[in-house]
Amino acid sequence: MWDPSQYTRFRDERKRPFFELLSRVDVAAPTHVADLGCGTGDLTRVLAERWPGATVYGVDSSVEMVEEARRRPAPGSLRFEVGELAGWAPPVPLDVLVSNAALHWVPDHAALMARLVAKLSPNAVLAFQVPANFDAPSHRLVDEVKALPRFARVLEPVRRRPVETLETYESLLAGRGMTVDAWETTYLHLLPGEDAVLQWLLGTTLRPVLAALGEAERQAFLEELGPRLRDAYPAHARGTPFLFTRRFVVARRGT
Asked: What is the CA radius of gyration of the chain?
């Protein structure tokens, strides 16, 4: 149930961390680059522009997202594929592997880090960014509504997959011969429009929740959640302030 138009509603806020992540990737002329969780492919095209001599793969598990990515012309070196983020196998080892706000959908990050490192060539760089706001009011309120008797039984299997700490990522990757640069940033977004935080969540966090419900129950869920979010995140004339924390990791593999 990925909706490309809903996801890109807050395009500027979602793409900013990508550029901050990419600014720390110091690779001059890679030959094979991949973007795991490429979505609509906007940012994958940035990779192709930065490294025009590279073959760039955009991979996403959503057929809808990949179809949207393929709608626009792309250079011959840019390829979009449907594939699972952990299971996708590149045809050759990668020199740069990027993932922007996608890996939190994959369970067991200890195993995931091992699988990602195995896709890399010597001296390659793994760079990823994941949300780290799972204790924010927005997510706590989603859990609160999920636990209501009307929804609890159906939504019990829909579990959150919080990400690891920076220290854990450093340990997992250093143990596989990577040199790690890791940091955390909290953004203050001023989201435009009515029910702005709900609209943000509809593009990501609420996707599996609503997918598990029937049409009537989806509407009931949103009617329960909306007022709670409005109380937690009051709107102002300049927008709705929304704090969002993200974790960044850039790791280089040794020879």
From this structure: 19
Angle between the N-to-C axes of helices 137-146 and 215-232, in degrees from 0 to 180, rounded to the nearest 10: 140
Mapping DSSP to helix (H, G, I), strand (E, B) and coil, where does residue 74 land? coil
Contact in structure between 163 and 109 (CB atoms under 8 Å): yes
Residue tagged 């040199």 (tokens): 179
| Sequence-separated (6 or more) residues with CB below 8 Å from residue 72 | 41
pLDDT in tens, 1-51: 545 555 556 678 888 999 999 999 999 999 999 999 998 899 999 999 999
DSSP 232: H
Neighbour-count burial for 199-231, b at 16+ CB within 10 Å, e otherwise: bbbbbbbbbbbbebbeeeeeebbbebbbebbbe
pTM for the whole structure: 0.91
CATH class entry, domain 4-253: alpha beta
Residue 42's nearest CA partner among 76, 78, 86 is 78
- Whole-angstrom Cα distance, residue 221 to residue 239? 24
Q: Taking the domains of the chain in order of start, what are their residue ranges?
A: 4-253
Residue 126 tokens read as 């793994």
